[in-house]
Amino acid sequence: MPRNVVFIADADSWSGKGLIARFSQVGTNLILNSRLDEKEWEDVLVSCIAAGSKVLVTHADLSSSRDLSTMLDQAEKLLGPVDVMIHNCCVTRPAHVESCEETEFVEIMQANAKSAFFCTQTFGKRMADRSGGSIIFVSSIHNEKPTGSSFAYSASQGAVKMLAHEAALFLGRFGIRVNVIEMGPVEGSDVTFQSHISGLYDDYRYKVPGAMLGTASDLAELAFFLAGEEAGYLNGADIRMDGGFLLHYMDHRMNKPAEGETRSQ
Length: 265
Fold this sequence. Notes:
Blueprint: E1 5-8, H1 14-24, E2 29-33, H2 42-50, E3 55-58, H3 65-79, E4 84-87, H4 102-129, E5 133-140, H5 151-171, E6 176-183, H6 189-192, H7 216-227, E7 238-241
Parallel strand pairs: 1-2, 1-4, 2-3, 4-5, 5-6, 6-7
Helix pairs in contact: 1-7, 4-5
InterPro entries: NAD(P)-bd_dom_sf, SDR_fam
Family: Belongs to the short-chain dehydrogenases/reductases (SDR) family.
Pfam families: adh_short_C2
C-alpha cells in the first residue's frame, strides 16, 4: 500500500485534523508533528489505533534541519520510512508592507517557508534513496493573489510554490512526486484576512459560484488522492481548490440568497 507512513507537519491545525481523520480511515501509520502535549492527543490516538493506525506524536522544530533529522531518525525506527510528507504550515498574522516589523516578517517566513525547505530537503533525500515518495504542500490561493492584510503570509506561500516547482523538477528524477494544493476560502477566512484596503473577503461565501466554502474534509480527500498511486503521473501540479472563488469579478452578480431565503451549508 502506497500510504504506509504519512508525516503531517502541522497536526494541530484545522487542515491537520482533516488529514488525520482521512488517512487513519485506511489504517495509515501517522507521524504527527505537534506543539501540544501528548495528553491532548489521547482521544485522537484511541480513534486512530482502533482504525488500525500506529501514531507517533513528535515535537520537532521544522525550521531546524538538525532537529528534523533527529526526529525522523527516531520515527523511522518505530514506524519505518516515510512514504508521504504533507507540509501544511500556514501561519497567518496581520502584516502590512508599510508597518511590518522585521521580527514579524522573519517569524512568518520561518514558520511557513523555511520549514517547507528543510522538510523538502530532509524527506526528499531519504525518499530519493528509496526511489519513491510523495510530497504534498498545503498552500493557499494567496501564493499569487494578494491578501491586502498579510503580505508576509502571501510571500511565504509564494516561496513555497516555487520551492515545490523546483523540487518537482529535481526529485521527480528519483520517482518522487511534489504537488501543491492551493486552498481557497474556508469558514473564518473573512476574519483571518480582514483588510482595510481589499474587499476580497466581503461577502466571500457568495463569491464562490456554488455559495459554499471549502472544508478540512475537502482538502483531506484531495491530499489522499495525491498521496496514492492513482495520482502517479501528477508531479509539479498546482491544484487550486477554491470552489471557483478567484473566478468572481462582479459583486452585483454574486450568488446571494434572496431576501428572507436561507441556504443550508
